[in-house]
Design a protein that fits this description.
Elements: H1 2-23, E1 35-41, E2 44-46, E3 49-52, E4 58-64, E5 73-76, E6 81-84, E7 91-95, E8 101-106, E9 113-118
Parallel strand pairs: 1-4, 3-9
Antiparallel strand pairs: 1-2, 4-7, 5-6, 8-9
The structure holds copper (II) ion.
Length: 119
């Protein structure tokens, strides 16, 4: 009876550990149908490197906190996509990158720089 209890306790413990690691995974650099939030602040996009799967639509939500005009646009040159980013208002961009490789995204002066990695 007590051996059975130990087994169950062990299983519960393993379950908790697995759950903990699953829960504490870093968020959404890899897109799987979700929305990826990109913060525009302090001269950097956060995250600056976003991995997505080729041929799958990906939704990026840019939130610009930087008031400088430098940050007012985001351009995906390779993909022919751009957007204006008003301060403090999330802007949603949905794209479907078909070609694998690295696609830069930048502000209009290319001071802000990020990479969309398509696999
Ligand atoms: Cu700029």
């Amino acid at each position: 009876m007590s051996a059975m209890f130990v087994n169950i306790a062990g299983l519960v413990l393993i379950g908790l550990i697995v759950w903990w690691f699953w829960r504490s995974k870093p968020k959404a650099r890899h897109a799987a149908g979700g929305v990826i939030d990109v913060l525009v602040e302090g001269g950097v996009y956060t995250p600056a490197r976003i991995e997505v799967a080729a041929g799958q639509p990906v939704t990026l939500r840019f939130l610009r906190k930087d008031p400088s005009p430098c940050a007012e646009k985001v351009l995906f040159d390779d993909l022919g996509v751009s957007a204006d980013l008003p301060i403090g208002q999330p802007v949603v961009l949905t794209l479907t990158p078909n070609e694998a490789g690295e696609h830069a995204f930048t502000c209009q002066m290319q001071m802000y720089r990020g990479t969309l990695v398509v696999k």
